[in-house]
Protein 1
Amino acid sequence: MDTLLLTNIHKSFDKRILLQNVEFECKVGQIIGVLGRNGCGKSTLLKMIFGTEKADTIGIKINSKVYTPKEIIPSRRIGYLPQVTFLPKDIMVRDIISVFFPNGELQDLIFYAPKVSSFETTKVGNLSLGQLRYLELLLMGNLPHTFLLLDEPFSMIEPLYKEVIKEFLIELKNSKGIILTDHYYNDVLEITTKNYVITDAQIVPILDKADLVFYDYLRSYE
Ligand SMILES: Nc1ncnc2c1ncn2[C@@H]1O[C@H](COP(=O)(O)OP(=O)(O)OP(=O)(O)O)[C@@H](O)[C@H]1O
């Protein structure tokens, strides 16, 4: 089973230590949730792993192979879904699918995915937020990358598409390892296999919502 091992991650801005000695791993078959209060460094962590934000130090290993952050994008081993959409607005969904996947069989995987037929002739700019996020995830999830970093896949998404996205991610973990971060902790905890919270610049494993209260992310829960 492919394993992404992240070690010795440090990041500071000016005098503020954002992340210190962060270490965790993600295997194919796992969905790892990273929770934490606004500004604790979740997005920065994902960007440092992807190589688009400079870390003070970071160790990245996939199985026995060591990668520098600069090697991550060209290696196509790790994909990254940013918080803000990356698709051009003026293009029709079916055209963007063929841009991503010139191969007909791969195209079909997307065209026949649940719900896609209901918006394939819509322009990207006219999609609902849920349709757009789902499309982005379908495109990324069908690329060959073994690991995916997802920054807020549930934020602002209508309930119907949240469910479709969760089903897709649960299926996807059969072939990939996924690290995701979001404030919609109920949705995160529903699909993750392991969870962490970032607190005081450290990453700490958590088991349940009681731990989230303990680490001051939640005040209370039902
Ligand atoms: N280039 C930078 N220079 C200085 N500070 C920065 C820089 N980039 C990010 N920060 C700060 O680092 C902190 C972490 O930001 P980040 O976006 O990673 O947090 P987050 O946990 O993803 O927050 P949210 O939950 O609000 O998305 C924030 O306080 C942010 O202002």
Note: The chain has one domain: 31-53+74-214.
Protein 2
Amino acid sequence: MLILVINPGSTSTKVAIFDDDKKLVQRTLRHDVSELEKFNDIMEQEDFRKKEILKFLSEEDYKVEDFSAIACRGGILPPLESGTYRVDESMVDYLKNKTKVKHASNLAAVIGYSLSNGKIPVFITDPVSVDEMIDEARVSGIPEIERLSLVHALNIKAVAREVAEQLGKKYEDLNMVVAHLGGGISVTAHRKGKMIDVNNANDEGPFSPERTGELPVGDVVKLAFSGKYSKKELKKMFVGRGGLVAYLGTNDVKKVLETGTDKEKFYVDAMIYQIAKEIGGMCAVLKGKVDAIVITGGIANNQNVVEKIKSYVFKFAPVFSVPGEFEMEALAKGALRVLKGKEEAKIWGEKNE
Ligand SMILES: Nc1ncnc2c1ncn2[C@@H]1O[C@H](COP(=O)(O)OP(=O)(O)OP(=O)(O)O)[C@@H](O)[C@H]1O
Ligand SMILES: CCCC(=O)O
């Protein structure tokens, strides 16, 4: 069964074609920043990115009708349980007009649904808004603000299952802390297959290559009322131009580690320190009963970084590293489970609002 996988990021769209779970081809369609800057809103990029995907298909000699399904990255929907969902009109409407956070992943289902033209099923799996948090974890400290579960759920769930398999156990029988270290950083506590607490990767937790993570609130208020920044500028300062970008002008950890000065590398060490602190917190969430700590994402490619994190947290549980991300495979597998009748597609509806 042929599956087309679509996964948009802020400056590129990853596309792949799978035959069952065998990847036939994967390409990263890079979009020039100057091209993207012409659009005021992420959703306005729909036609532009759709054309690029159609160009890719034609170059690879496929037509949309050749596919049994389109598997799309799930965007910022209301809180949902983990699983594969059928994309329908109301989901597309939500992602276009109602979503609370603008994120490139919101484009995937919109583009997939439009490409399918009602002829083939379109699915999302484990969207960014997968929410399995326990009630205590939702309380922020003021009633007006509720803590949210917005994380790299797709890769995190796939990697957690992979490590469980390596251990010869079921994911649902284990307690794990999984940290995704990419442009953004998500650290998550899993109790028997449920992600019971997370740092919202846009707002909380460690600083990352391009995000500030948690900040001292008093100083944030001072910045916000300094008159120097618009709301949009402040948001960009926190997500996009924060973290390593703010200190070093780059989000490229690999480059800093390879060619940076000691002073520059110090900021990577500071980031590692914050990651380890967050992992320790998630071990406490699991009351110290942790079967595995898992480090994944692009930064996990660097064994020194993994070792440094390990030096802080090795006493809590065995540490596994699963470098890179497996989002395309996870999306294909999610759609395949439904196509093969192993799982029923969940139906998203306004009731999730
Ligand atoms: N071998 C490596 N050593 C150190 N860092 C690396 C290595 N390979 C990739 N990275 C770093 O990983 C980061 C990007 O990670 P990744 O590709 O997971 O992020 P992304 O997909 O852009 O964002 P996100 O994971 O938040 O969706 C960059 O800072 C990059 O320099
Ligand atoms: C918000 C967490 C997911 C991402 O940054 O891609």
Note: The domain at 153-324 is CATH 3.30.420.40 (Nucleotidyltransferase; domain 5).
